[in-house]
Amino acid sequence: MQGQGAIRFQVPKDLWIGLFFLGLALAYRYQAGLIPISPLDGAVNAAAMPKLFAGALAIFSVLLVIRALAVEALFVRAARKAALAKAPKRETDGIKFTPREHLRAVGVLLFGLGYLILLPYLGYVLSVILLIAALAVYMGTKPSPKVLGIAALVGVIFYLLFVRLLSIPLPAGFWPGLMG
Amino acid sequence: MEGLLTAWNVLTGSPAIFAAFGGVAWGIVGGALPGISPSIALALLLPFTYGMDPTTAIVLLAATYVGAEYGGSIPAILINTPGTNAAAATVIDGYQMHRQGKGGEALGISLQSGVIGGLAGLIFLILFTKPLASVALAFNFPAYFALGILGLSVIVSLSNGSLLKGLMAAAVGLMIATIGTDPLSGVSRFTFGEAELLTGIPYVLVMVGVFAISELMMQASTPDWGKTDKTQTRIKLPNFRQWRKLWRAQGIGSGVGIIEGVMPGAGGSVAAFMSYNEAKRWSSEPETFGKGAPEGVAAPEAANNAVACTALVPVLSFGIPGSNSAAILMGGMLIHGLTPGPMLFQKEPDFVYGLFAGLAVANVALLFIGILMMAPALWMVNRPKPYLMAVIFALVFSGIYSIHNSTYDLYLVLIFGLLGYLMRAFGFPFLPLVLGLVLGYLIEANYRRSLELTAGDHSIFLNTPIALGLLIAAAIFICVSVVRDVFQARKAARKIAAGAAE
Predict the structure, then answer these.
(1) Do A139 and B414 make contact, defined as CB atoms within 8 angstroms?
(2) Collapsing DSSP states into helix, strand and coil, what is residue A87?
(3) Is A26 in the B-facing interface, judged by CB distances under 8 Å?
(4) Residues with Cβ < 8 Å from B466, sequence gap 6 or more?
(5) Which of A37, A40, A44 to probe by mutation at the B interface, max B CB count within 10 Å?
(6) Do residue A119 and residue B418 have CB atoms under 8 angstroms apart?
């Protein structure tokens, strides 16, 4: 019984996930209630299935919370019964990244957002060159003129492929205005 | 005979044959890049298929799947890093062969076995899809609804991770499918006044976001893969004497791959490892396995290429995909206005036979393109990862923009990329989400049409024998998974207790 004090009940990650999805299910259910009734609706209207899905998600979320608590309780009981001084590492689902690594991953999306903000002003070619160069540096390449050169080369290839070959009207930015 | 003629006409009268070559080439390069799984290689290509005719588009995607399964073995053999999950079994003996100076032979065995496995899978696909589809012709509205539920239950039960998370992912997929104008009554749902959402969320945005963008996010925090020197990389196909030692392993791999491909949720990785074990069991030299046995390369490579063909059996006959790649292929069909399932043979015979012909070309062409693409694939693998990832990101964005010429789609892709990343982070499987999305319409439409027949009386699902049988099967799958989940939790607790006793 020596280790009982060291092994404490921890709020499991799945509990928060379950609560988040429960909130999502309730919000979705609320929105489903706002779906208008159409005169074309038959025995089952357009809101029926969404309400069922919301109910199902809510049930699964609650079950996930219960399961998470039960698994933690089983874990703590087993660890205490085994009289461990220190709780063994809990096994969790998903990728094992540090918070810093997670932030780095989310940072990739910011480059996408930045590209979308710049695209209407700078046009496709310049935006895509900046995107490739900035993302390559973010992913680990040392900043150098070579990075910009490679990005420019790929940007021009993409321009030829999408705009010239496939005739996709990608945003031109301020360049046409400059050229009158 | 009529089918052969149709296939020939489609092949010679459309660019499908070029799509087969191009798909295999892209698949090999995509599969060779660690992190780019066959499903990601398919998702990356999906936006570019919009302007193509349906047969060419789906042949391109299916050929990519074929090429990617072989491409995954290149880094597995040369740099001890599987390019795809299914190539993880190839690493064991393939890399050992490379270390012994037999890298070229290992690549040759992988290529030859892939072609043999692919052709075996294709023969099964051609022979068995139509008879299975004719069984599905007996299905009515309640049966189709039940089939959709069964498909979801099986995938949820067999997916990695916890059952509850699989069910939640499926529910979210079904919810995403309800966004847009209700096809039965014309009412808009969950559009929040956004005109862009009225037509619903295109499958391609979800698939590209969840598979490709989330993988690129992951790559930001994972180290670069190893690079290979350019020696020992000439492919040496096995001669007849060597092939005589491999046929048994290739046969085992093909057989296991055929079975696993048809089974939902199994996929190439399960097939590859299972065939590796079986090849070892039936080998006359089992002690060489793990030390560079050629049979240890042949069996898994034949298996994963057989899977690339037979994974289409449930899609074409029932409209139910059994793996990520098959779900993306099915998404591609839906994008092009094709409804996978038994009616496909009656409504679109040109497409079905054209697809079979395209796959035949792709599997045979794999032998030649595999040799030709070796140098470009190695060149790509040897590029610094940051450049590759940045270029792929830019390619995804350019491709997605080109679908509707809209930046709105790009914002949605970013949102789904974040969703995919969160799913990876918290251990949610992807396949139930994607399946919920592509089966959403089938499930809802057939549920509502069934209840129209009985003025809202749910007993129609119990009174239709096929529907009842399928729903019972779905319930059994879920119950078995619940029991499995409970046992796993108890086993984990016992492990802790045992660890303390030691």
Answers:
(1) no
(2) coil
(3) no
(4) B138, B139, B140, B142, B143, B146
(5) A44
(6) no
Query: Torsion angle of alpha carbons B50, B207, B274, B23, nearest 10°?
Result: 20
B168: left (phi over 0), alpha (psi -120 to 50) or beta: alpha
* Record: contact B386-A135, CB cut-off 8 A: yes
Does residue A130 sit at the B interface (CB-CB below 8 Å)? no
Tokens of B354: 């054209």
Cβ partners under 8 Å of residue A133, min gap 6: A147, A148, A150, A151, B390
Return the residue in B52, B216, B217, B221 with the most chain A beta carbons within 10 A, the one to mutate for interface testing.
B221
**Long-range CB pairs of A90-95, under 8 A, 24+ apart, other chains included:** A90/A10, A90/A12, A91/B492, A92/A13, A92/B427, A93/A14, A93/B161, A93/B162, A93/B165, A93/B426, A93/B427, A93/B428, A94/B424, A94/B425, A94/B426, A94/B427, A94/B428, A95/B218, A95/B424, A95/B425
Residue A161: closest CA among chain B residues belongs to which residue?
Answer: B398
**Given CB atoms, is A71 within the 8 Å cutoff of chain B?**
yes
Chain A residues 147-176 within an 8 A CB cutoff of chain B: 150-151, 154-155, 158, 162, 166, 168-170
Sequential pLDDT tens for chain B (502 residues):
677 777 777 777 778 889 999 999 999 988 887 777 788 888 888 888 888 888 999 999 999 999 998 888 888 888 777 777 788 888 888 888 888 888 888 989 999 999 999 999 999 998 888 888 777 777 888 988 998 898 888 778 766 667 889 999 999 999 999 999 988 888 899 999 888 899 889 888 898 899 889 988 988 887 766 666 655 567 788 888 888 888 999 999 999 999 888 876 666 777 888 889 888 888 888 888 888 899 999 999 999 899 888 888 888 888 888 778 888 889 889 888 888 887 888 888 888 888 999 999 999 999 999 888 888 877 777 788 889 889 989 988 888 888 888 889 999 999 999 999 999 999 898 888 988 998 888 899 999 989 988 888 889 999 989 899 999 999 998 898 888 888 877 777 677 666 655 5
Tell me which residue of B55, B67, B52, B48 sits closest to B12, measured CA to CA. B55
| B167 contacts in chain A (CB < 8 Å) | 56, 60
Strand partners, B180: B189
